[in-house]
Amino acid sequence: MYASRRERDQKLARGVQHDLNRIPLFLRARHRALGSHRAAPNIKNPWTTVQREQMLRAAIPPAHASRVHFVYLRDYLYNDNLWAAELQAQVAALAGDAKAVVLIGHRKDSSSYYLESFPQWEFQEFPQRMPLNATRLRASYFRGARDWENDVPPAVRAFLQTFARTDEYARLADEQKFIDRYKQDWSAAPYPPIFVTADAVTFKSGHVLVVKRRGFPGKGLWALPGGFVEQNEWVERAAVRELREETGIALTANELKKFIRASRVFDHPDRSLRGRTITHGFYFDLGATGDLPRVKGGDDAAKAFWMSLNDVYLNEDRFFEDHVSIITHFVNRF
């Protein structure tokens, strides 16, 4: 027997109420940390932190609303210490003179390792009460199905139905189709594929060379020039080739190689929606002074242009995957 939508809505509301009541009453305030702040939208993180807070607040019973606060956290894929420091600072600012801080969370899998990063706080396990799979719900939503509607509170359902009429939803739905096809193409492989790419991090006079992506995933987002390493190609040569193909920079391959100052592997397991993708970032230093070389988008890049480092950080929510983290690594090192 299937419950009616009204019955499901009442069950969800009771579930939210029950979960809030399970939080110790002695806590004078409850703070919820929302990650991936200022990350570009994709099918894994489709909504801004503000939009996610709106949906969560819509599901909170009025009696609890004034005691629930939200903090926003950026992702630091290659520096857990920075992430922990940011959370600690926000908690300290909010907790004030509170004598105790209790960290409440659910150890879902290996991705929950961060819960062990704060020994100074008491930890309370918060088991998942309702058997919902967020990945499945998002995929269903962006595939245009409607089976997700019975698994979210009414206010959230209304938000998602409105969002489904936007251009951004259409872009993300196309991205979902691309990822589905991409994974289907590799489904017959005898083992999960591991992809190797190369990215060019090119600095000149306080600017970094970026491109606008022509295709999915990340269509329309800004990115570093780069791409897949060919079968019989050195990784360094791949970075040089992609730099020249996507930006049309008027320097020969040999000239560009002379500007390489450093390289690093960026291999966070979840850095790409396509699957396990390991990229090699190459730092090209064209000098701290002088005019910016002319560039023009080509190949997979719809556009190529120089962006000031200040504008990179003002617009980090328009960058593809972990490319701001890659840029930041070389900015901090040199």
Short description:
The chain is α/β, with parallel strands linked by helices and 334 residues long. It is built from eleven helices and eleven strands.
What does this 3D model show about the protein?
- By secondary structure, this protein is an alpha/beta fold.
- It folds into 2 domains: 5-133, 3-Layer(aba) Sandwich (Rossmann fold), CATH 3.40.50; 195-333, Nucleoside Triphosphate Pyrophosphohydrolase, CATH 3.90.79.10.
- The chain is built from 11 helices and 11 strands.
- Strands 5, 6, 7, 8, 9, 10 and 11 form a 7-stranded mixed beta sheet that branches. It has a two-stranded parallel sheet with strand order 1-2. A two-stranded parallel sheet has the order 3-4.
- β5 and β6 (207-213) form a beta hairpin.
- α2 runs antiparallel to α6 (154-163).
- The chain is globular, with a radius of gyration of 23 Å.
- The model is unreliable at 1-14 (pLDDT under 50).
| E-strand count | 11
How would you describe the shape? Answer: globular
Fraction of residues in β-strands: 15-25%
Could you give the order of the helices and strands? HEHHEHEEHHHEEEEHHEEEHH
The residue fraction in helices comes out at 25-40%
What is the subunit organization of this protein? single chain
Uncertain segments are 1-14
CATH homologous superfamily caption of the largest domain? Nucleoside Triphosphate Pyrophosphohydrolase
Structural class: alpha/beta
Task: Give the N-terminus to C-terminus distance in angstroms.
Answer: 64 Å
CATH architecture of the largest domain: Alpha-Beta Complex
Number of domain modules: 2
